[in-house]
Amino acid sequence: MKHEQNRFKTLLEILLISTRLGLTSFGGPIAHLGYFHEEYVRKRKWMDEKSYADLVALCQFLPGPASSQVGIGIGVMRGGVLGGVISFIGFTLPSVIALILFELVLEGLDVGDLSWIHGLKIVAVAVVAHAILGMAEKLTPDLKRKTIALFALVVSLLWQTAFSQVGVILVAGIIGFILYRQQADSEDTEFKFPVSRTFAVICLTLFFSLLILLPIIREATSISWIALFDSFYRSGSLVFGGGHVVLPLLEREFVPTDWISEEAFLAGYGAAQAVPGPLFTFAAYLGAVMNGWQGGLLATFAIFLPAFLLILGTLPFWNMLRRNPKIKGALMGVNAAVVGILISAFYNPIWTSTILKPIDFAFAAVLFSMLVYWKLPPWVIVVTGAIGGLLMTSL
């Protein structure tokens, strides 16, 4: 009985925290990783820096929405598979509901020009800068790893393709393996993942089976909801690099086939930028345009299902690999590269699309100080950012 009460308490805690993050995490996938780091690593200490960096590195490897996969992974480690589902629902549902409502009620609203959104983007600058400083201090303590981080920063900044992050992480892993194979990291961290390898294999089998079979079933049946499911599932399965990369894939799937007009597509994309949570929830808007709120929920399920199957299918084996002394050396290189990739993403697109005038930089400095030095909770920073964005337009 006590065990059941503790489990219920844990799941409720996961739901409340992930929902709060889902309501306040503006700024895209890299900013989400900053919010997660602040909440789960710094504040609640559900996992340590190295385990978090390992999880981020794995999710950068996998196709799909990296920040959502990190959130799912943290939820699973805290509360099992059900914890992962609850963590996903809490983080994702607020933006899904908001985007379906945008389509059903506020389709003509021009969200791209609202000044408070700019304030929230400046919040993302402060949050990501704080996360990068903390991770860099822990994961790049020596000159070799600082150099790996610099390599990752330069390459990922100058070579911006869908596969650049994966390539950088692979190269960094090889460099780390060579440099640190004789001096593997002595700090052995706990990385509990309560999923069996048998269940993991089932998840991976289902992932590849759906990827192969759905197009065949689509052609054989011509049922519209199967075609819808297939398009979103394939988009979620084949995207490296996060939400912004999924835009051309989804556009290619739905605009030329006249499922949705170019104008409606772009209006929804503007709305997706305005809400917190993962950008992949743009699928909820597209599904709602095509088949009402039921279509929105189906599209959301389809585009995020690959992320679930991949994270549940790979993490149990990841845990085994990271305990191998030789693999640890490679992970030291990978973790350093993650820092460089985060700095690159911090500059472009976060900094370049946000810090446009001196007042933007000044406000970002204030928000950063509120977060780092005054130790105010993130939701206060978010509210301040929104109000500041409104006030700055009158200055």
UniProtKB/TrEMBL annotation:
Pfam family, one: Chromate_transp
Membrane topology, as annotated: Multi-pass membrane protein
Main localization, broad class: membrane
Any one cellular-component term (Gene Ontology): plasma membrane
TM segment ranges: 81-102, 114-136, 148-179, 199-220, 296-318, 330-350, 362-391
Stored InterPro entries: Chr_Tranpt_l_chain, Chromate_transpt
Keyword rRNA processing on entry: no
Keyword entries, A-Z: Cell membrane, Membrane, Transmembrane, Transmembrane helix
The UniProt record lists the keyword Membrane: yes
Single GO term (MF): chromate transmembrane transporter activity
Intracellular or extracellular location(s): Cell membrane
Similarity comment: Belongs to the chromate ion transporter (CHR) (TC 2.A.51) family.
Protein name stated in the entry: ChrA protein
Organism: Fictibacillus arsenicus
